[in-house]
Design a protein that fits this description.
Blueprint (H helix, E strand, L loop, with lengths): L2 H18 L9 H17 L4 E14 L6 E15 L18 E13 L2 E14 L9 E2 L5 H15 L6 E13 L6 E14 L2 E4 L7 E9 L2 E8 L4 E4 L5 E4 L25 E2 L4 H10 L13 H4 L39 E5 L6 H6 L9 E5 L9
Antiparallel strand pairs: 1-2, 2-3, 3-4, 4-13, 5-6, 6-7, 7-8, 7-9, 9-10, 11-12, 14-15
Length: about 400
C-alpha cells in the first residue's frame, strides 16, 4: 500500500476511535464543576414552581468527544432544595439549603450537555424529586399535602393579618410553597410558606396585578389557626442575575401561574417537584447512563517504567548469572501493540504508588530489588458532598 493510502486508513481509524472513546474526568475537576453549575442554573430556569435547587454532589460524568470538538457531557448530579423561591432573584449560591430537620427535598438528575465553541448548553435532562426523611424525629414538624384544607385556611388567615398592617397595598396568594405542622396542646401548630403578589381589590374580590412591576414576595407564618405570626419579604423586581458563565444580565422573574381553589396544582404532594423530563427522545439514553453508574470496573495492572525498573548493568568481570524468567503478560495484553503512554485504564481511578522499605533479603545478599509496591486505586467519582 502506498504512503497516501496508509495515511487515509490511519485517519479513518483515528476518527472512528474518537467516536467511541469515553473520557472519565474526576467528578471534582474544574471541568465537571463548570458543567454541573450550568446544569443547575438551567434546571432552576425550567422549574417555575416551588424553590430553587443547589448542587450538592456530582455523582458521575462521562465525556464523549465529538469529531470537531463538539463534546457531549453526560452527568448525574444531586441537588438540594433551598429556601429561595423561583421568583426570588437571589443567586443560588446565596440561598440556604434546607436542613434534614426541616425535611429536605432532593433532586437526582441525569443531564446531557453539549459544548460548542467553548460554551456548554443543556440538551436533555431527566429528574426525580423526593423527600429526604432520614432524620425525621418524633414530635418534629412534618410536611402536609399542598392541598390540605385546614392548612390552607391558616394561609388565608395569616395573609389577612398581614394585609391589615400594610398601607395602601393589598396582596393575594400566588402560590403555596410548603406547609407543615406539629402536634401541640390546643391543636396543631402550622408553619407555612407562600408567595404573594400585589392585587387590585374591590370589596372582597382581589385580582392579581398583571404587571411585571407588581410587587412579589414570600410570606412565612407560624402558629395555631387563630393566632398566626406572619412575616413577609418582598422580592426586588429587576436585578442583574449572574449565571454559571459569569455573564450578568437583567432578568425578570419567571411566570408563576395562579392556582384557583386549592392554590396548588400538586394534589396530594407535599412539595413542588423539579421538571421531570426534557427532550423525551433522549430519555432512553439518559436511563442507560443511569444504569451504568453501578458498573464494575476491572482492576488493571499498573504500567511500570521499564527504565526505572531495569536492574543495574552487569559487571563484565562478574560471572554470568542465569537469566531471570520472563514475567507473564498481563491478561488481554498484546505485546508490542501498546505504547508506553497507553491509557488503557479506567478514567475514574487514579493510580498511586506507596513507598515500601526494602526487604531484609535484599539488604543482606545485595540482590536487585524488584518493584513490588502495591497499587492504590483512588476513586474520583462520585465527588465531594457539599451539604449532606
Amino acid at each position: 500500500m502506498n504512503p497516501l493510502g496508509i495515511t487515509v486508513v490511519l485517519g479513518l481509524l483515528v476518527g472512528a476511535w474518537a467516536q467511541v472513546v469515553t473520557l472519565r474526568p474526576q467528578c471534582d475537576s474544574l471541568e465537571a464543576e463548570e458543567a454541573a453549575l450550568v446544569a443547575q442554573d438551567y434546571l432552576n430556569a425550567q422549574h417555575t414552581h416551588g424553590y430553587k435547587y443547589a448542587l450538592n454532589r456530582i455523582e458521575d460524568i462521562k465525556i464523549h468527544p465529538g469529531p470537531v470538538g463538539d463534546d457531549i457531557y453526560v452527568m448525574e448530579i444531586n441537588l438540594l432544595e433551598t429556601d429561595c423561591h423561583v421568583l426570588d432573584p437571589t443567586p443560588v449560591a446565596n440561598c440556604t439549603v434546607r436542613s434534614k430537620f426541616l425535611t429536605a427535598v432532593e433532586g437526582d438528575c441525569d443531564v446531557v450537555l453539549k459544548r460548542v465553541g467553548g460554551a456548554l448548553t443543556v440538551t436533555a435532562f431527566k429528574c426525580k424529586t423526593e423527600e429526604s426523611t432520614e432524620d425525621i424525629c418524633p414530635g418534629c414538624s412534618f410536611l402536609l399535602p399542598l392541598n390540605d384544607t385546614l392548612a390552607l385556611d391558616f394561609v388565608h388567615v395569616s395573609l389577612a393579618t398581614f394585609n391589615n398592617i400594610t398601607d395602601n397595598v393589598t396582596y393575594t396568594v400566588l402560590e403555596v410553597g410548603r406547609m407543615s405542622s406539629r402536634f401541640a396542646v390546643g391543636g396543631p401548630v402550622y408553619s407555612v410558606e407562600y408567595v404573594v403578589v400585589e392585587a387590585n381589590c374591590t370589596n372582597d374580590a382581589c385580582v392579581p396585578l398583571n404587571d411585571t412591576m407588581a410587587e412579589h414576595g414570600i410570606c412565612t407564618a407560624t402558629g395555631q389557626s387563630t393566632a398566626p405570626q406572619v412575616d413577609c419579604k418582598m422580592f426586588p423586581t429587576l436585578i442583574p442575575v449572574v449565571d454559571a458563565n459569569s455573564t450578568a444580565a437583567p432578568a425578570l422573574p419567571p411566570t408563576v401561574h395562579i392556582h384557583a381553589g386549592s392554590l396548588s396544582r400538586k394534589h396530594g404532594l407535599r412539595h413542588h417537584q423539579l421538571t421531570t423530563l426534557h427532550d423525551p427522545l433522549l430519555s432512553g439514553f439518559l436511563s442507560a447512563e443511569s444504569a451504568e453508574s453501578a458498573e464494575v470496573v476491572p482492576v488493571v495492572p499498573a504500567v511500570v517504567d521499564a527504565a526505572a525498573a531495569a536492574p543495574p548493568a552487569a559487571d563484565p568481570a562478574a560471572p554470568a548469572a542465569d537469566p531471570a524468567p520472563a514475567a507473564d503478560p498481563a491478561p488481554g495484553a498484546d505485546s508490542g501493540s501498546k505504547s508506553e503512554n497507553s491509557k488503557e485504564f479506567p478514567w475514574h481511578f487514579n493510580l498511586k504508588k506507596r513507598d515500601v522499605p526494602a526487604s531484609p533479603a535484599s539488604v543482606i545478599f545485595g540482590a536487585p530489588v524488584v518493584q513490588t509496591d502495591p497499587i492504590v486505586l483512588v476513586p474520583t467519582c462520585p465527588g465531594r458532598i457539599r451539604f449532606f
